[in-house]
Each structure stands twice: as structure tokens, then as C-alpha cells.
Amino acid sequence: MHALRPAAKAAHAAHAARSLQQLRCRSRSRSYSLSTYIPSSSTQTSPFAPRHLLSIADVTPAELTTLVRNADAHKKSIKSTGEVPLSLRQSLAGRTVAMTFSKRSTRTRVSTEGAISALGASPMFLGKEDIQLGVNESLYDTSLVLSSMTAAIVARVGPHSDVADLAKHSSVPVINALSDLYHPMQIIADLLTITESHPSASTSSLGLEGLKVAWIGDANNVLFDLAIGCVKLGIDISVATPKGYEIPQPMRDVIQHAAQTAPHPGKLIETTVPEEAAKNADILVTDTWVSMGQEEEAAKRIRDFAGFQITSELAQRAGAKDKWQFMHCLPRHPEEVSDDVFYGPRSVVFREAENRLWSALSVLEAFVVNKGKIE
């Protein structure tokens, strides 16, 4: 698949944007809210507007490669010396980074605060009890006020429209720390984890072309951004979901558009049979079957996902690669993956969790310190 010419690329991007607007018209069987995705480029009103990270779709394949490589370099440097290089720890000295979290978290909060502190800045945590986005004050007002006092805004929200609106009006970079559509910092951590397990001497890419990732479970925000990242880097991603829980067509269009931007795109394959997805897979991945806000339908979802638990038996039956590994962004529930896989030697989930710190450090350096110049 070759890169699109400029006119065709613009047309394809416009089609993808129109498709994403249709995400509001979802089947009632899919209860989580999917708001319109607004690319960060659409929010910029002048050449001086900051660059935001709302999705992996916002970076090129080369930039994504650099973000992963920088995360890896920071991890190796800091863990080997036990200290943050002076050039990093003074880069945001005396500044404040706002963290607006409408949803609770463990890994996102700890990794983001750690990365902010490593850069010399002070994290200002604003939870749902401290600030209510769009409730007591409009998103427009909140964005103007927060961006006037801080170096950046890291937002963990419900509807993607919340973080998109913050970015639209902010005078500083806005980083999406999770929305109902995307989770970009998680995906950089995931790609770093995959790179560590599949090292390459390539200088032009991460050398992951031809790998196969099997996602077995719900089609959610983590999958959407993971699929975008995979096809950009030449990784094939095979997705198994129960009937009624498939990737919505508008999001498929976004993923396919991402593939069009890659020199050697990966493929998106979909099925309703877990064994088909896991066949010849290098990595098996899942996530929660019941996301925040879906608790009332937990019993129905667990019934619908019967047979989708990742186990050693499933991997063997499917014919996964001999050295297959398991990933999960956490928190994990026993119905999603068996204990012997989750805590076994094939699992890299705790290294994956640690890599959230290095992902956050790479992203904040690129978008806040270097003002969106990724190198």
C-alpha cells in the first residue's frame, strides 16, 4: 500500500473525519459514549497555536518511531545512572503542568506526575472533586484559564469531545491521558514494550514490520489507538470481538487512513473467533470487558464474552507463535485472562505498566519542552 498523493490524502482525511462524526449514531448495544474526534490540526487557529496529542493519529509513522525510541533512551539512561540528566530535569524548571482527571487512575496519574517532576515542573492534580469539566464552568472558560497559568494540560476525560474542546481553545499543549476514543500515551508504552521484546538493529524503523498482534476482547479506546499505531509501524493486528462488539465502521476508516500514511503499513484483520485472531500471533492482548461507566451491563457483557478469556490452552489451540507474549494495560480481571498467563513467564504486563512513565516523559518532552518538534 503506497502513501496517498496530497489531494487523495486530504480527501481520505475528510472522509475519515466525516465518518467519525457518525460515531454518535451507535447501536444501543454499545453503551459507551463515542464523541466526534477532532484532529489536533483542526483546533489550531494560527501558526503560533500549540501542537496537541489527542491520538496516535496525530503523529506520523516517523514521529511515532521517534517517540518510542526517546522513551527507550530515557529509560536506559535514567535506570543505568539512577538520575535524570541535567538537561531534562531543568527543561521545565519553575513551571506547572495541570492534570485534569475526570476519571480515576493508577498508572496514568503516577506516570504523569513522575514524568512532570523529572522535567523539573510541578504537577497540579485537579480531580473530579476539584474541577468539573463543562459542568460548573464551560470547557472554553476552563481551557483559557488553565492554559494561562500552566505549561501544559494533561486531561483524562470521558467523552473525547472534552479533551478536543480543551485543545481547541488552549494556548498550551493539551495531552490526552485517556478519552472514550483514544489513549495515546498507553500505546507508546505498549510499542516500547513490544520493541524491547523484539529488538532490531534497523536505523530507519523500529524493525517491527511483519509482527502480528492479536487483540481478543472488547473494541475500545485502547484498541483503536493501538490499531492506528500498529498499522503505522507495519504491524499486523488481528482483532477478535463477539458479535455486536466489533470496531465501528467510522473508526475502521480512521485506522485505514492511518495505514495510508505508512511506508509499509500493517493490516487490520477482524473476526469473531478468538482462535483465528491468535493464529501465528507474536503478542496476545486484551483489556477490560467492562469499562468505567458500563457497570450496569457487566453481567451481560461477561456472558457475551464467554470463550474470549486468554489462556495457554487457547494460544496452543490457535497456533500462536512458540514465543508468544501477553500484554494488558491494567487493571486486569480474572475473566479476561487466566492466572497462569497473567502471572506466568509469557506476561510482560508489569514492564508494560512501568513503560507508562517513559512514554509520558517522551511525550511531555516532545510536545511541551520541544513545542511539538519530535526529534
UniProtKB/TrEMBL annotation:
Catalytic activity from the UniProt record: carbamoyl phosphate + L-ornithine = L-citrulline + phosphate + H(+)
- Domain Aspartate/ornithine carbamoyltransferase carbamoyl-P binding, chain residue ranges per copy: 51-196
All residue ranges annotated as the Aspartate/ornithine carbamoyltransferase Asp/Orn-binding domain in the record: 209-365
Quote the protein name from its UniProt record.
Ornithine carbamoyltransferase, mitochondrial
A GO term for molecular function: ornithine carbamoyltransferase activity
Q: Which family does the record assign?
A: Belongs to the aspartate/ornithine carbamoyltransferase superfamily. OTCase family.
Q: Which UniProt keywords apply?
A: Amino-acid biosynthesis, Arginine biosynthesis, Transferase
> Could you tell me the EC number(s) of this protein?
2.1.3.3
| Quaternary structure and partners | Homotrimer.
Cellular component terms, GO, for this chain's entry? Answer: cytosol; mitochondrion; ornithine carbamoyltransferase inhibitor complex
Q: Which Pfam families match?
A: OTCace (PF00185), OTCace_N (PF02729)
Q: What class of enzyme is it?
A: transferase
Task: Offer one example of a GO biological process linked to this entry.
Answer: citrulline biosynthetic process
Which pathway?
Answer: Amino-acid biosynthesis; L-arginine biosynthesis; L-arginine from L-ornithine and carbamoyl phosphate: step 1/3
